[in-house]
Specification:
two-stranded antiparallel sheet; binds zinc ion; 1 helix; 36% strand; 81 residues; alpha+beta; two-stranded antiparallel ribbon
Length: 81
């Protein structure tokens, strides 16, 4: 009987800074109504959007910053047994 053997490799999950990685995007989301700014590589754009959103919607005081950051597994050493 033939037994299949499998080898496994350690992988480490890290932010993807390779050219395959998407840029990190920052967006600001209003907790009151759920509207959010478009994702931007510049976090200041979200702050600006929030200021404008508050101006147009008095009382919308709470926001959350949503950060979209690409990750990838980096292959490491083969595990032996
Ligand atoms: Zn709002």
């Amino acid at each position: 009987m033939v037994r299949a053997t499998y080898r496994f490799r350690e992988h480490t999950l890290t932010p993807d800074r390779t050219e395959d990685g998407d840029p990190t995007l920052y967006a600001m989301e209003c907790k009151r109504c759920g509207q959010s700014s478009d994702g931007s590589t510049d976090p200041a754009d979200g702050s600006e959007w929030a200021a404008g959103h508050l101006k147009a919607n008095p009382g919308h005081l709470n926001y959350r910053e949503v950060i979209t950051r690409p990750y990838r597994f980096e292959p490491g050493a083969w595990l032996t047994n």
